[in-house]
Amino acid sequence: MARRVLIIIDMLNDFIQSEGALYCGASAQAIVPFIKERLENYRRSGDPVVYLQDAHAPDDKEFERFPRHCVAGTWGSRIIDELAPREGEAIISKTRYSGFYGTDLDRILSAIQPERVEVVGVCTSICVMDTVGGLANRDYAVRVPEAGVADFDANFHDFALKRMKQLYGADIS
């Protein structure tokens, strides 16, 4: 049984790079060094790392609400170079906000049985919050470091942190 698992959500070119289709802004770029440090910490201790990767079909219905982004197989859908996965680290493609919707995340976490799940990435009020809700609904202890999450909208970011703490019982540190 692993003591802890790190889930890195949507640290992808289209969200993090300034030329990305759905660039989250300077706040998203600012969290990269923190996430890199956490990633190296987990790797040193041998604890599992799981990447969630937005990977849409070219005609995904989500593009009715957001600009076309993270189309599977494109530059925009790739994990940024600074956080490149290593062999053996799970990469889970997703097409919806929650990392659990239509993916193997539940099965992977059930096999690991972590005592705690740490969640970092973008966007705080969308994919991070929806995935944390899925973790809480499965009774995982969740930690969300403020320095490791970012959003398009500062108000939504603050609201999501409060909601994850109050409703889902996440440790917001």
How would you briefly describe this protein structure?
This protein has 173 residues and is of the alpha/beta class.
Features:
173 residues, alpha/beta, Rossmann fold, seven-stranded parallel β-sheet, 6 helices, globular
Structure overview:
The longest helix is centred in the N-terminal third of the chain and has 14 residues. This protein has 173 residues and is of the alpha/beta class. Strand 4, helix 5 and strand 5 form a beta-alpha-beta unit. The mean pLDDT is 97. Strands 1, 2, 3, 4, 5, 6 and 7 form a seven-stranded parallel sheet that branches. The chain has one domain: Isochorismatase-like (Rossmann fold).
Q: Sum up the overall morphology in one term.
A: globular
Which structural category do the helix and sheet elements fall into? alpha/beta
**CA(first)-CA(last) distance:** 24 Å
- CATH A-level architecture: 3-Layer(aba) Sandwich
Helix count from the secondary structure assignment: 6
Mean pLDDT: 97
CATH topology value: Rossmann fold
Whole-number count of domains: 1
Using DSSP, what is the number of strands? 7
CATH structural class: Alpha Beta
Rounded to the nearest angstrom, the radius of gyration is 15 Å
Q: Name the CATH superfamily assignment.
A: Isochorismatase-like
Are there runs of 5+ residues with pLDDT below 50, and where? none
Tell me the major beta sheet: 7 strands, parallel
Compressed to H and E, one letter per element, the order equals EHHHEEHEHEEHE
Helix coverage percent: 25-40%
Query: Strand-residue fraction?
Result: 15-25%
